[in-house]
Every structure is written in C-alpha cells, then in structure tokens.
C-alpha cells in the first residue's frame, strides 16, 4: 500500500504540473506538439490528486495500526510530500503560469 501511495504522489504531482511544466520547457527551448498531449491530463488533475490523498490516508492508517518497517514510513512520507506539493501547484497554477509567461 505504501508503494501505491508513493506512486499516487508522483502521479498527482505530474498531473498538477501539466500546465506549468510545458511553459517551463518552452522557456528552456524544448517546446513541441507533445504539449497538446498534456492538456487532456489537466481536466483530471483534481481527481487524481484527491484519489492519491485517499490512498495515502488509508496507507498511513494501516501502517500506523500495525507495525510497519521504516521503509514504509519513508515511502508514505515521500508520497505525502509529493501530494502536498501537487495540491500547492494545482491551487497556485494561475499565478505560476502568469509568472512564467512574464519571462517569455
């Protein structure tokens, strides 16, 4: 379950950064048609992050209820950090995009 929580954190961060990341890559000169592929992920971003948060909460509950190895807590902590970062990116996406557009 801890692995799913960590992978969910990575997935939530990837979907939350789907609009900020392409602008950053374009600023670095790596634009292209692949940017259009990320647009479909933008609509699913809040759902993916919410599902990731639920999986992480369940994994934390199960691991704290029993005796889990340290690696489990490290994976859950990393997944929680990534999911929190995804929420921050999602909630501040407009301001981040405006800032990056100023650099274009």
Automatic annotation (TrEMBL):
The chain crosses the membrane at residues 32-61, 73-90. Keywords: Membrane, Transmembrane, Transmembrane helix. PROSITE patterns: PROKAR_LIPOPROTEIN (PS51257). This is Mercuric ion transport protein. It comes from Stappia albiluteola. The lineage of its organism: Bacteria, Pseudomonadati, Pseudomonadota, Alphaproteobacteria, Hyphomicrobiales.
